[in-house]
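RECORD TYPE: inverse folding
INPUT: structure tokens
STRUCTURE:
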């Protein structure tokens, strides 16, 4: 079926506005299908939008439902899922506008953005299933054809939030007037190396012309997380007498137990135990008194851009194995997300939960259990 016929057939089926109904009103330029509504499916751009990805890569996805993405839309029934890949490719969609964006004029439009915690697909470099969960950003281009990149008109910050927030894009063409717009996902810049990430889009507003002297709106900020208790199950009994446990893994050399991290003490494989990072019992939201210790890690990473680290989470022996694994992973992820949110490149921060596999003290005493329930930093790479 020709594209035009397919387009209008889909509009009729879904009750979406036709091209004629997407004309501008006053100073508004309305998108066709601004909420990315369509039948949920993988690897196909929504009706009204043109795939602008690399020809030999799969198109974007109409979510939810594909690659284990389950997030509820912010508006309507579906939304757009875009990914960036570890083979240095990324996804985008384009559309012809009902009237051009004129040179030296100013425009705004808003769109809801967030990141999916789970977006499982195959790595393009290894062929193994991986989670495309690293934060990405959105870039907006103006051009004279589908996917034409004449001028970069807007670029968002890194979208780390996993809940919908509304972002306002300010466009001010300087090099020409443009009849087409391209919206694409892109890596954090500067990009040390490509990675697998995603970004979700929904509920785009019409483009409106504005006074260029109008003060730009501030980007939305992620609000502090609300503590969430992970479902758990505890054993009914505890050891009757304190008996030291046998170490279940080779004991790592801890480089520094204080909050001060010194590069001269470290090498690949070194572990730094973060003794002043706190969580409420059975929860994974970082407490405010942890910030000084985390700032030490952040400062160290800022001053040593060649370092790649892993945040490791550990629990004591009280939880069940499944809960211990979930809790330790969630706590490690919270610390990793905090560092990325402060501006550390996501490809430099990995995280992993080890559950209760590797105690460093006895679990038969309160103090021992407290020491075992910890967060550690492991140096994966330094000096390139």
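DESIGNED SEQUENCE:
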């Amino acid at each position: 079926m020709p594209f035009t016929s397919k387009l209008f057939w889909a509009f009729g089926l879904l009750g979406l506005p036709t091209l004629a109904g997407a004309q501008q009103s006053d100073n508004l330029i309305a998108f066709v299908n601004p909420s990315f509504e369509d039948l949920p499916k993988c690897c196909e751009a929504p009706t009204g939008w043109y795939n602008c990805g690399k020809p030999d890569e799969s198109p974007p996805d109409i979510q939810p439902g594909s690659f284990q993405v389950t997030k509820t839309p912010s508006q309507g029934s579906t939304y757009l899922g875009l990914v960036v890949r570890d083979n240095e490719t990324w996804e985008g969609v384009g559309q012809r506008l009902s009237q051009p964006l004129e040179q030296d004029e100013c425009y705004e439009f808003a769109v809801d953005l967030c990141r999916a915690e789970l977006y499982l697909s195959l790595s393009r470099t290894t062929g193994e299933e991986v989670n495309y969960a690293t934060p990405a950003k959105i870039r907006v281009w103006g051009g004279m054809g589908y996917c034409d990149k004449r001028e970069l008109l807007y670029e968002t910050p890194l979208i780390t939030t996993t809940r919908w927030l509304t972002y306002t894009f300010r466009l001010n063409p300087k090099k020409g007037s443009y009849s087409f717009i391209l919206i694409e996902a892109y890596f954090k810049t500067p990009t040390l190396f490509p990675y697998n990430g995603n970004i979700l889009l929904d509920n785009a507003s019409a483009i409106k012309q504005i006074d260029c002297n109008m003060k730009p709106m501030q980007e939305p900020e992620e609000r502090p997380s609300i503590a969430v208790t992970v479902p758990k199950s505890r054993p009914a009994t505890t050891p009757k007498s304190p008996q030291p446990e046998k170490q279940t893994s080779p004991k790592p050399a801890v480089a520094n137990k204080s909050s001060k991290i010194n590069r001269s003490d470290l090498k690949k494989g070194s572990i730094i135990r973060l003794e002043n990072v706190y969580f409420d019992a059975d929860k994974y939201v970082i407490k405010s008194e942890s910030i000084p210790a985390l700032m030490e890690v952040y400062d160290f990473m800022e001053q040593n851009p060649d370092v790649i680290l892993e945040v490791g989470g550990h629990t004591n022996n009280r939880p069940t194995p499944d809960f211990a694994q979930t809790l330790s992973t969630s706590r490690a992820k919270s610390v990793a997300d905090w560092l990325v949110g402060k501006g550390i490149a996501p490809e430099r921060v990995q995280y992993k939960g080890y559950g209760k596999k590797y105690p460093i003290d006895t679990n038969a005493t309160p103090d021992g259990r407290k020491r075992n329930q910890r967060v550690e930093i492991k140096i994966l790479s330094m000096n390139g």
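NOTES: DSSP finds four helices and 20 strands in the chain.
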